[in-house]
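Honest question from a wet-lab person: if I give you the sequences of every part of a complex, can you actually get the arrangement of the whole thing, not just the pieces? Trying it with mine:
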Amino acid sequence: DAEITQSPRHKITETGRQVTLACHQTWNHNNMFWYRQDLGHGLRLIHYSYGVQDTNKGEVSDGYSVSRSNTEDLPLTLESAASSQTSVYFCASSRGLVDTQYFGPGTRLTVL
Amino acid sequence: ILNVEQSPQSLHVQEGDSTNFTCSFPSSNFYALHWYRWETAKSPEALFVMTLNGDEKKKGRISATLNTKEGYSYLYIKGSQPEDSATYLCAFPSSNTGKLIFGQGTTLQVKP
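Yes, you can. This is the full assembly:
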C-alpha cells in the first residue's frame, strides 16, 4: 500500500547542530509539504514543493531548508538548530494542488 | 490575506449528544474546502474534500455541508462517542499557490 513515512520519529539534539528530518512518500505525488505544530498556532507551513527541483518558502521558513531531488523524498534541514525549533514536524503530500493532503506520522524534535 | 476561522475553539459534550461546528472561509476564488480529523499524538487524517456549493458529504456519523456563496461549512457529529474526541481542522487552498490555509481547529471532547 502507498504511504508516507517520516524518520526519525523522535530526535533530541543540541543548539547549533544541523539536523535533517526525512520524509518519503510512495504515492508518486508531485506536491509535498512540511509543517510544524505549535501550541496556539496549529499547523504552520515551513516549505513546500510542487515537483522535482522545485522548492518554495512557507510562512515560517527561516532557519529551515529543503531539497527535492526526486519525487518520493523531501528532506527538511535545520541549518543550526535553535530551542525555538522544538516542535512536532509533519510532512504531507498531495496529488493535485487542491487535493487532500496525506500526512506522515510526525517527528518530535527537541532542541536542548 | 486569506483567513480561515473555526468556531467554537473547543467543545465538551456528553456521549450520545449531537454536535456541530463551523468553518468560515473567503467566498471569492473558491476551489475546495477540506476537513481533517486530528487525534492527539497522531497525524491529521482527511475526512472530506468539498467542492460544490450545497455539497453534503457523510462518513458514518459525521457529515458536512458547504455554502460557498456565504463562505461557511458546518461539520456535524451525530450521537458523539468518546472516540470522536479530536481536533477538527478545516482548510482552504489558496487559489494561486494551492497551499492549504488551516483554521485553528475545534477541539472536541466527548465524555462517557
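Two things worth pointing out. Chain A touches chain B at residues 31, 33, 42-43, 45, 48, 50, 56, 58, 90, 96-106 (CB under 8 Å). The mean pLDDT of chain A is 94.
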